[in-house]
Amino acid sequence: MQILSIERHGKVPGGTPMPGLLALPVQTALAVAVIGALIALTAFAVSRGLLTDKDRDGVFWYGFTGGFACLSAMLGAMVLIPETAAVTGLAGMLGMGLAGGWVWRGEQERAVRRRRQSVEEARSALRARHESVLQRWVSYELDPAVAIDYPDMTDVKRPETAGLVRAMRTAAVLREQEDTDDDGAAPAYESAVSELETAFEKAERAAGARSTPPSRDS
């Protein structure tokens, strides 16, 4: 009799209303939380896979499996709780959109960092080449014994040495421009360093010098 009375009047003995109205929002909130957790886990797995950049196939399967699980959870919640199907579906789609945007933004930021690192590594290598030529030139210019052995390396009247000095000046100017992040300076600086290396080798050959000039102690 108590069961029949509850079904007819929606009350438990003693006149307390049934928590039916409360159960629906709780169930909906639980479903949305589960869907949100699945979306977050999927986005995290995809983001980590893109960060390591080692297994692109793994990233695809992370996204595919996670997306399938999220859609399954959404459909299941919409079928089991049809009264709030619109809310559940909207929350799920919004969560997937936000997660996708987060993954995309993270990948774009990582791509920018990779490009910057690549550019900086190229700059460092180019500067090292430039410094190497300058150090070799200083040996001919400042070491008295080497200067006596190879006077043509510092004689700007010789065309090869004059060309070397011009190449050094050009490379120095373009290096300053490259340091200020001038978009057009990097290719020009690289070309100038290559020309400087060529000019230095020509000057050495014309002066009869070795690639690595001897020091006074040699």
Please describe the structure with a list of short key phrases separated by commas or semicolons.
218 residues, mainly alpha, two-stranded antiparallel ribbon, 7 helices, 2 strands, 80% helix, 2% strand, rod-shaped, disordered C terminus
3D structure, described in words:
By secondary structure, this protein is mainly alpha-helical. 80% of the residues lie in helices and 2% in strands. Residues 1-12 and 213-218 have low confidence and may be disordered.
Short structural description:
The protein is mainly α and 218 residues long. It is built from 7 helices and 2 strands. It has a two-stranded antiparallel ribbon with strand order 1-2.
Walk me through the topology.
Layout (H helix, E strand, L loop, with lengths): L1 H8 L1 E2 L3 E2 L2 H33 L3 H25 L4 H58 L1 H6 L9 H21 L5 H23 L11
Antiparallel strand pairs: 1-2
Helix pairs in contact: 2-3, 2-4, 3-4, 4-7, 6-7
The secondary-structure element order is HEEHHHHHH
Largest pleated sheet: 2 strands, antiparallel
Kindly report how far apart the N and C termini lie: 114 Å
Q: Uncertain runs with pLDDT below 50, 5 residues or more?
A: 1-12, 213-218
User: Radius of gyration from the CA trace?
Assistant: 37 Å
Helix content: over 70%
- Tally of DSSP helical segments: 7
